[in-house]
Design goal:
alpha/beta, globular, 3-stranded antiparallel beta sheet, 6 helices, 7-stranded mixed beta sheet, 226 residues
Length: 226
């Protein structure tokens, strides 16, 4: 029988607004479950800290500060949340169970009906049509678990915002992070948990965007009109 993995967990929240009740309920539910149930089979929770950086008008700075503290203080994992996400109380257990260096949830962007995860060809990934976990090129960092030893060799900045001359737009700091760790030596693989993504994750705007909000395909519209 293999020994349990000892976990020293840093839960990091980047916040620049008043929380919606749904995010607060999600976070409290996860923390309560963590204290009552722990991490599930194969893991031993040595300690955990919750760090909330309020008034974080610059998301890149907030993410970098949380990551730096977690690295400097010897935590084994950082669980990062944005304050506009809804997630189930067993999110951490799901992500840990895969035993991957970086595993995240795919979720819908607000308003445009697109997922955040991209495959190796740069195409968007619909988690509603997949199951299990998948190695991805990039994914949003609204719900992500990172094993800190896996990225300790990767220097700052981790979350820069860069200009894309071809597309005439800025890269998000999450895409920068994914490209950075993938291109490091040794490279760090990034995984997406499709089952968790489609069953319990929402991105809160005017309401909670989820995979139910994917655009209806033209063929489906045609069939409905007949």
């Amino acid at each position: 029988m293999s020994e349990n993995v000892n976990v020293r967990l840093f839960i990091a929240v980047s916040s620049h607004r008043s929380w919606c009740i749904h995010f607060a309920s999600s976070l409290l539910g996860l923390i309560y479950r963590l204290g009552k149930v722990g991490l599930g089979e194969g893991f031993n929770l040595e300690s955990f800290t919750v760090k909330i950086l309020g008034n974080a008008s610059c998301l890149s700075m907030s993410r970098e500060a949380n990551l730096r503290e977690a690295l400097d203080k010897g935590y084994t994992h950082i669980l990062m949340f944005d304050d506009d996400m809804i997630f189930p109380d067993d999110t951490l257990e799901h992500l840990l169970s895969h035993k991957k260096s970086i595993v995240a949830c795919n979720y819908m962007k607000k308003g445009n009906g697109e997922p955040t995860a991209q495959n190796m060809e740069g195409k968007l990934i619909n988690s509603a049509e997949r199951t299990g976990i998948e190695s991805v090129y990039s994914v949003g960092l609204g719900v992500v678990l990172i094993e800190l030893d896996a990225i300790r060799h990767v220097g700052a900045p981790h979350f820069a915002v860069m200009w894309d001359e071809t597309r005439k737009c800025y890269w998000g700091e999450d895409l920068y992070f994914c490209e950075l760790v993938r291109g490091s030596e040794p490279p760090v693989e990034i995984w997406c948990d499709h089952d968790l993504s489609k069953s319990g994750i929402s991105h809160v705007g005017d309401y909670g965007y989820s995979f139910k909000d994917l655009p209806v395909k033209e063929v489906e519209l045609a069939e409905a009109a007949e």
